[in-house]
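Practice problem: predict the structure.
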Amino acid sequence: MSVIRMERSLGDARQRRIARNFSRAASGYDAEARLQREVADLLIQAIPQGIRPKTVLDVGCGTGYVIAALAQRASQQGTGMTGIGLDIAPGMIESARKRHAALPIHWIVGCAERLPMADASLDLVVSSLALQWCDSLDAVLIEAARVLRPGGWLAFTTLGDESLSELRESWRRVDGEAHVNRFMAPSDLDAILAAARLCLHRCDWATHRTWHADARSALRSLKRIGANTVTARSGQAGLAGRGRMIQLQRELETHRHPRGIPTSYRVATVLMQRQSSRE
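Answer:
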């Protein structure tokens, strides 16, 4: 494919650690990823219905839910579409390739901040709940602006700083440390979007929750989707210790609702566009 350039190697040790965690989670990811599918469906709905993109890139595609849905929609509309699924985790790419073998989608391992795509080669770039793992959202937006054609669209969801609040508060009661990734504050996201070389059409925030029968189930669910990776540096990065884990589970129980123990996610849905050369 002319739009795909030679694949680039993954970045530093932090990115390789993220890739390993998500690769390990790939086989059981879809069984646990209820929240991810819910957010992905909202992202798909946010894409302007009138556009008919011929080339689409899904960044952080995971097991391929979003790009497969867009490929199927294009087929139903009778329009041709070249789909590309990109993920930092080789295990996710392998799982996506097997799951969607019947669809005309190209699967590649790559990084959102160093896209292996030619300049001005894509009509649509999508990404659902993946960009929060990147080192620099600014770099992601620069890359998106580079690979999009004039008039092309970027649609993504990402997590805000109120996400996983129950787990963060519970860990702090255990040992004073957060042990949870620090996600972006809305004001920081607003500043980054305002400085981007793309036109902002919308940035909406919503809170989503998953519910678990007990604390062990809540922690197991995060591990099964690979979201237990702690990327921020911490004085106590290791989570080992049976006593501490028992105490953590007790603290999580204090957040119990009638529906169970919640895991909260603060999600931003963003829609941007590269301006045409006439504008």
